[in-house]
Amino acid sequence: MLYSKKMKKEDLPKKIAVFPLSNFIIFPNTSVPLNIFEPRYVDMVNDSMNNDKFIGMIQPRSSKNINDKIIDLHQIGCLGKITNFKEIKGGRFLIELKGLIRFKTIKEIGSNKKYREFEVNFEEYLDDLTEKNEKIKFTDLELIFKNLKSLFEKRGFIINWKALEKQNLNETINALAMASPFSLEEKQVLLESKDLATRKTKISEILSTYTYDDFNNTTIQ
Predict the structure, then answer these.
(1) Close Cβ partners of 16 (under 8 Å, ≥ 6 residues apart)
(2) Full residue range of the structural domain in which residue 50 is found
(3) Would you say 80 and 55 are in contact if contact means Cβ atoms under 8 Å apart?
(4) Nearest CA to 188 among 61, 67, 97?
(5) What residues contact 24, with CB distance under 8 A and at least 6 apart?
(6) Domain boundary among 86, 108, 129
(7) Does the global pTM surpass 0.85?
(8) Binning pLDDT at 50, 70 and 90, where does residue 3 land?
(9) What gap in Å lies between CA 217 and CA 38, rounded to an integer?
(10) pLDDT score for 103
(11) In whole angstroms, what is the distance from residue 145 CA to residue 87 CA?
(12) Same structural domain for residues 119 and 180?
């Protein structure tokens, strides 16, 4: 396990390596495991571990499988920090990445590296670095939980709902948005939502676009 101190504005990098993954996002204060095996991203993780341990997660604008050296990327992503690292057979890495703060790409930086790097700006998302101690109020999320629970189960997703109810509101909304079976575009909308209240509203709006047939069971168990 790697030690990770609280991120401050002055610690933020001006340029970052980015890892473009389709239909995959992280939010601040959420953690995800990643299996790194492509040579370019093995290089990226090696360089990150020897530097600041930062990696920017960002979605391509298209889910088509084309060379991600030229694929167009969304402008908003989330900066992550490697908090756990393990090298395994075959030159692969297992890492855990913790989301810290969202960023906006300014311009791509040309280099001879196999992976892509961007100059980025964090000014619009500095609130992501602020500790939020708001306790979850189930009544505030009852409809979202009801519909999301049904949709997750219909799609074969398993979520520990009781554990989510014990988290603060920010962590819960972000975890649900990250793990949801929503589309690439829908997840990007959630990532770009300015604040928690907006994200909660957007989840409700997205759920309203799904038909009744998408909800196999609309009763909280």
Answers:
(1) 54, 55, 56, 79, 103, 117, 118, 120
(2) 9-129
(3) yes
(4) 61
(5) 57, 59
(6) 129
(7) no
(8) very low
(9) 40
(10) 97
(11) 38
(12) no
